[in-house]
Amino acid sequence: MASDSSLQNNSANQGVRITSLVRPENENDFLDLFQAAFRHQMPPELLRWKYCGLVSPGMLVKQDGLPVAFYGGMPRAINLLGTPVMAVQIGDVMVHPRQRGILSRKGLFFQVASSFLEHFVGDGKTFPVAFGFPSERAFRLAAHLGLYERVGELMQVSWPALKARPSYKFLIRPINPDQDVAAVDRLWLEMADALQDQIIGVRDWSYVQQRYLQHPAFTYQIYLVSSRWTGVPVGIFVIRVHEDTVELLDMIAPPQRLSILVHCLRRVAWGLGKPRVHAWITNQNARLLAGGAGEIASTGITIPHNKWTSGIPASKILDRWWLMGGDTDFN
């Protein structure tokens, strides 16, 4: 990180300095701060999966040698209204409980967030756009401080499991990493071509492998749906099985095929003995995903947009993000 950060030069923060997560010696600082901020531990393997090897993994703030704040950034390849660019996904934003009293621009949250945005996000910076999934309280604070503005909302869609005979049109099977790489890449290209009026994270094989098959903490199931007669791939869905529900994390298919995937997913849920399926998706896509059988409810999660530095105006991308639960770093 830049050594001349505005945070270091702020006289109200004596003894404060910005460091980096790139060096292994900072790993325990992050984990100690995470434990203090969220009252549970992050496995070191999950930290490395998120940030290992990144040039700009975020800003870690120390005060008198102790970690007090962090603002994380994970690069994500996206298609921005049809144009491939690199965005940054904000995550693991935290301030030590003993430092949370100042909710103004003198506080550590504002200092670390504004410093990150000034260094990395906006016109002429590393990332033209940033996004994330802040809690309602965190978004309200950031908006109050002039850092964020709203460009979307995550909704929850849920369906009952479906007891039905196997389809005579479509075949459902777990993905085979040795055979299905080309199918995943083909489906992603079809999806990207159909969503050139939206902003969507790349969902090619490299992403699927890193995000779902190599996750150090969670186990996912990935299914390929194809035509029973021609073998042509129709779509892919990714799920995580919970005690009483199936969570749909991701889908890779053009939007017009989502109803086929949802029907297949509900059948899979019944076969797993789970009564319901639920998914998160941005509000402008919720009705399409829900179809006739789905119920839609708010999650309370707002999609933020950088307001602090000059860049893409929020009006240009309002309700344009295609995001699901798998796009988060915590599901």
UniProtKB/TrEMBL annotation:
InterPro entries: Acyl_CoA_acyltransferase. Pfam families: Acetyltransf_9. This is Uncharacterized protein. It comes from mine drainage metagenome. The lineage of its organism: unclassified sequences, metagenomes, ecological metagenomes.
